[in-house]
Amino acid sequence: MDTLIIKKDDEYVQQLAQLDPVMGKLIQYVGTINIPLRTDYFASLVRSITGQQISVAAASAVFERLKNLTGNKMNVDSIARVSDEDLHEIGFSKRKIEYIRDLIAHIEREDIILSQLPELDNDTIIKQLTSVKGIGKWTAEMFLILSLARMDVLAIDDIGIQRGARWLYQVEKTERKEILKQKQTIWKAPHLTIASCYLWEVVHLDLERQFQGIDDVNLN
To answer: Of the candidates 54, 52, 38, which has an alpha carbon nearest to the alpha carbon of residue 136?
Structure first.
């Protein structure tokens, strides 16, 4: 599966809309969501490290240069052969180079076996991935959603999801994490990833700028 497709009329999506009518309005407006998956697990993790604390555009540029440097072969062996100097030349900080080297070391020692990750539960995957320098819980949760298409993940620390929740539920900035924690007990699995993806769409569709709140949106 190369794309995670969340259809408005799917059973679980409709269940979420019934559990949370405000979220239901967002679902009605956004409709079906297509999310490209990062099915190359190693490249996905390297890409996540690349994107830390820089803009999406800058991360994409650095990652593209890395692909060019390796002849479009984004695997452990090809990146292991690239020198620290060359990585720094294309835009990697000293710290990110250290993170990538540590990821490679974990894989080479078989502390992490990428091909086996789909067979593991979420908590085990998070524990394994966060043992790598530079990979925190948020990065592991993004991997669960964007690489493994797990449907029971709510990344409360994700800024995009927080922004979506603040707009949708009309709370103060200081309350946006708390509202997600409250909603998590209502949504529950297997609706958590669905809710995450619809909250991301608030940002992707620039609804924050266009509308004051969901009640201002034309749902017809």
So the answer is: 52
Catalytic residue among 10, 84, 123, 158: 158
* CB distance 8 to 31 below 8 Å: yes
Residue 139, φ and ψ in degrees, nearest 5: -60, -40
**Number of other residues whose CB lies within 10 A of the CB of residue 138:** 16
Cα dihedral 117, 123, 126, 128 sign: negative
The sign of the CA dihedral 80, 86, 91, 97 is positive
pLDDT tens digits along 9-42: 999 999 999 999 999 999 999 999 999 999 999 9
User: What is the span of the domain harbouring residue 188?
Assistant: 3-36+153-216
Query: Cβ distance 82 to 147 under 8 Å?
Result: no
Is 40 marked active-site?
Answer: no
Provide the H-helix boundaries in the chain. Answer: 11-19, 21-30, 41-50, 56-69, 76-80, 84-89, 94-108, 122-129, 137-146, 159-169, 176-187, 192-204, 207-210
Give the Cα separation of 111 and 115 in Å (integer): 12
Structure pTM? 0.91
pLDDT at 101: 97
The CATH number linked to 74 is 1.10.340.30
Length of the chain: 220
Residue 179 sits in a domain whose CATH number is 1.10.1670.40
